[in-house]
Predict the 3D structure of the following.
Amino acid sequence: MSRTLTEERFLRDVAHHELIVIRDDGVNRHIRFKKPDSSDMFFDLITWPGHLCYTGDMGTYVFKRLTDMFEFFRTDRAYNQSRGRKLGINLGYWAEKLIAVDGNRHGGKPKAFDEDKFKRVINEYRVQWMRDAKASNSLDKEGRRELWEAVEDEVIGVLDDGGDRAQYAAYDFHHTDPSDAQRRGWQFDDLFEHDFTEYTHSFLWCCYALAWGVEKYDVLKAAAELAKKAAAAPAEVLTTSPPCAIFAAPSSNDEVRP
């Protein structure tokens, strides 16, 4: 599951990354982040007007929104940091701005089927069925056990065949108890309303990398600007100071007038 990747874990992953400027020309940039002498977990941020491409060990993702996409990925920084988070990411909103994803990763999508999420929803249905059947006396203890095991065998049990197969099995599931004179059935009503996907580990890592990388770039640019101003400071004092008069003390032969 992608949620096992925390902000702290990501920061450990990039603790030794260095920033390498390959190109920095307005909104046209190519910035690389990597460990010295290693390409492990390296990534590049490449921008051109209206676009940003993240590419590296975790795949390739292309976003489109503002002319300067670094500005776009700065927008959530203050909000998240005010709430104690070091990195500002907005998974849902950022995913909406994707125009391309590495096709070799999860079918070119930022989200993938999440088995734990599927099991949790199916079990919520199953537990509620047990409660309803007991309260209405529609199933005896043996009938409830058979219903429980039917879900286990016919739905959860096919997860080994893949997420799509398990979802089809859930949609097709229908269980009746022969001892029930009313022949009431048990099925997963409104299951289609549930989302069984979660953001992938790769996409989550990419989003952390975007927030972290843009912030590191901003720190570098701010430091360079300060250094530039400091280097130019003496010249600026001479050229910007107002003109001043230079007075010489009069000699004894000079006529001094009031």
Q: What stands out?
A: Helices lie at 7-13, 69-72, 77-81, 91-96, 115-136, 141-154, 163-172, 201-240. Residues 201-240 form the longest helix (40 residues).
